[in-house]
Amino acid sequence: MMAVTGQFMILYVIAHVLGNYTIFAGAINAYAEGLRHWPYTIILWSSRTLLLISVFLHTWYGIILKLENRKAKPETYALTRYRSASLAGRTMVWSGLLIALFLIFHLLHFTFQVIEPGIAATAHPDALGRPDVLTMVVGSFQRAGIAALYVVGVLGLGLHLYHGIESSIQTEGLNNDRTLPVVVRTGMAISVVLFLMYAAIPVSILMGILK
Amino acid sequence: MILDGKIPSGPLPEKWDLRRAEMKLVNPANKRKYRIIVIGAGLAGSSAAASLGELGYNVDVFFFQDSPRRAHSIAAQGGINAAKNYPNDGDSVERLFHDTIKGGDFRSREANVYRLAQLSCGIIDQAVAQGVPFARDYAGYLGTRSFGGAQVSRTFYARGQTGQQLLLGAYGALLRQVKLGTVNLHPRTEMLDLVVVNGEAKGVIVRDLVTGAIGSFAADAVCLCSGGYANVFFLTTNSIGSSVNATWRAYKRGAFFANPCFTQIHPTCIPVTGEHQAKLTLMSESLRNDGRVWVPKLKGDQRSPEEIPESERDYFLERRYPSYGNLAARDVSSRAAKEVCDQGRGVGPGGRGVYLDFADAIRRLGADTIRERYGNLFEMYERITDENAYNRPMRIYPAPHYTMGGLWVDYNLESNVRGLFVLGEANFSDHGANRLGASALMQGLADGYFILPYTIANYLAETKPGVITTHFSEFIQSREEVSAFTNKLLSVKGKRTPAEFHRELGKLMWNNVGMTRSEASLKEALQKIPALREEFWQNVLVAGAGMKLNQELERAGRVADLLEFGELLTRDALQRDESCGAHFRVEHRTPDGEAVRNDKDFSYVSAWGYQGDGREPELHKEPLAFENVDLAVRSYK
Amino acid sequence: MNLTLYVWRQEDRNDKGRLVQYEARDISRDVSFLEMLDIVNEGLVKKGDDPISFDSDCREGICGMCGQVVNGVAHGPRKKTTVCQLHMRHFKDGDTLYIEPFRARAFPVIKDLIVDRTAMEKIIESGGYISVHTGGVPDGNAVLIAKRDADAAMDAAECIGCGACIAACPNGSAMLFTAAKVSHLAMLPQGRIEAGSRVCVMTEEMLKQGFGNCSNHYECEAVCPKGIKVRFIAKLYREFIKAKGNL
Lengths: 211, 637, 247
Fold this sequence. Notes:
Chain A contains 8 helices and no strands. Chain A has helices spanning 2-20, 28-35, 40-72, 87-90, 92-111, 133-141, 144-171, 179-206.
């Protein structure tokens, strides 16, 4: 369950970053507008619904697993030395929690637009009544605090996926000796790329590359 | 007393069928009324308990490890023999029988050995059905390899872990019965006495190794599957916990101990390195298939092996035994190694080692093939010695490994004490004076799967179930004796640890009653063992208390028994004034050092009866009749 | 060489337990780790102290009886090696060693370094076998098995059941142990028939015995003295999904 919901969210995250990159082409407003129209709006809303369910299940099972695992290992060693477990793997709960907090902020910020109502996209529609996403995003990320917050948030995401991608494939039983190392490395690479891609938006705005 | 092995009449190939036909059965509905105790959970114990449980008997299994899967059968590496003749190289039941009788130097019972050869094929089938992953060829057929003492390829194997895989197969069958409720496991429990009521074995006294509690268990029959006694030599390939306890206590309750002097020294072990070594490690004799054994021709040659040219090497097994070469029987190979080392041509620290060289095989077959066949053995060798056997020959030396002797049993595996059955290495029956490689697994499983389930029914059918309980005075008395024994060990509070006594006994046995024996060395041992035993009871230091987990106490109890048993072993070696198989008396050898048997005077099984502490045991004899084989001089030349 | 040891001492199940310092003097490079403990114990006995209790039997790395955590790693620093086969040449003079029992909720400490591993047995008992009777089986060559399958089954069957995988798992999970048995039998035609029910009952029993869940850290594989691969865990998942799909 963790694996399946996780993988769905990974797909969403990938689609999301690709969508976001319309900002570099100056087309983010058109992209946002497109999402509001048939047939894209169906995709948007069905994926949002599934995402919501996934987030809920993923968190729920994650907590249960963590509790069960804690119970199964009540005492630790005086000296603990890991031979293969990565930092990312051992901190899944914490990176998960970070992502959850970030997600709440992100929704309030860009979706419900209550953090900075002054530059909210819906507050500045163009002549045809289309919201101005570009201004909102650029305006926000010109502020270092917000940009830093986003970088930290997507860092949590990257860390989570660093272990999560390969782990989910293993748990679905899709590995053998040959594929396992490939999957592990690919998972790590994808997570790093996603982190860099996401982080690039606030960073490039902050540095004034993107206006 | 002349013992009767109760061998069925009729032609050899039909004896087992005849016996099965004449034996009584227990009504299926009545089986659950019987309780059977099994001591030991190795191949013999697990296979017997699983099979008995499946038939519907109630079975209690006692073993000192924490799981049946740890019994020392697990350490057997090389393989298991079966007369399948899959490779079409001329094998047959007849030939396996012949090889085993000859390998045992004509000191085993024809009928038992023949039955073993007959049952061998069924064992492979059983194991395959259990999911034992035997080696297969590319077409999917079972693979075989050759082994010492045979000129056909009849040894089935699962890499270098055949014993492990067979034991795990039997263990699975056993746990299946545990789940079905027919078998009760008693882990971390050691048998300390056999309870005999009216001349029949009816229960055991055990010590719970975790709590220290002494417990009594009654049953309608008792099966001892407790393995061998090689640990009397201290440094052996046996496990730390292996001991003579169970069989020795049964002996003291009246069961005869047969052929204790037949102890096998395995030729391919890793040499001793130092004083504090706890045990020796064996490497499968299958290595001799591709490895060539040699020493330098020169005495005290200190050059490293690769510097010694071919012309200055003595491939002594190939030289002395051209037809079997490096695959000569175990006892023959071991003694040959000892002789070259005694001549000062041994290699490695202390000069107690010979080379086992794979260079030729690697040249011929490639390193990958060798890795495929023996990879885990090479790894094991490297872990222990820090040397890479792909580049440099292994060093090996013989070490005590297996004991052919054991409690005397008749053809039905029943001891002279009625209701006491003895299986596997714990009995004496099938290997005579020397066991061939890959035959121990075969015997343990034949006894447990295919012999005991029939023969025990014959006994139980004449027994009313559940009559004897632990309230009988024999149980109460035996329990008190066991408690007194434990307390006595704890109360000496001397200066030397059980381990020190064990080491000293081992050295004495190895030097005087080891690979070669003489009248003088044996008589000396007969003087020294009682003295050491005396000192043990004056000066042993056992730490801790009785009513808790106490590994020192366990050790002390085992050593105390070995100190008594060693004397019996030596006495048996002294009375057998001939050389046969693994028993080599220097007085009886040919000019070129081969064993000389004396069939006229010693073609019998010696079975010793306990007469009380401090009194000489009584020697009983079971004459061996050979009607189907010629008593030939055993030769591997 | 000389070593400083911190050894876990615990009287019995209910005792709290603590690390106690010992000195190991004049240890040869060629003795095994357990022989080193034997030497320390002999010294303790002579001084009238209670020797350190630890499990061992075959001392050749196959019975799976021994096992301790040495400096935070189950079976110590050398790969694919049990403590009985770990030689002191892999340590340095003056080293400090922390020696602790295998820890997991399913492994209560019996005394010192000895733990109760009955929970592992319960997993096998629940269905880790082929339900075959003694006798009445077909010839060994009646069912052919591709060499590749026989070899793969053997790779899994090599498990010695020592419990190091569980001790090393941050979650105290018995997944590698269970997966090895499930895979071994599922890869053989004889074992296929019960493969579905086997994987279900064994995993259920595993959780019932108090073992944790697998979160793919692969610590188990790293410490396994037999090098059992985590690919068998993936195999277990496949078998599980297959079995649930067939219900």
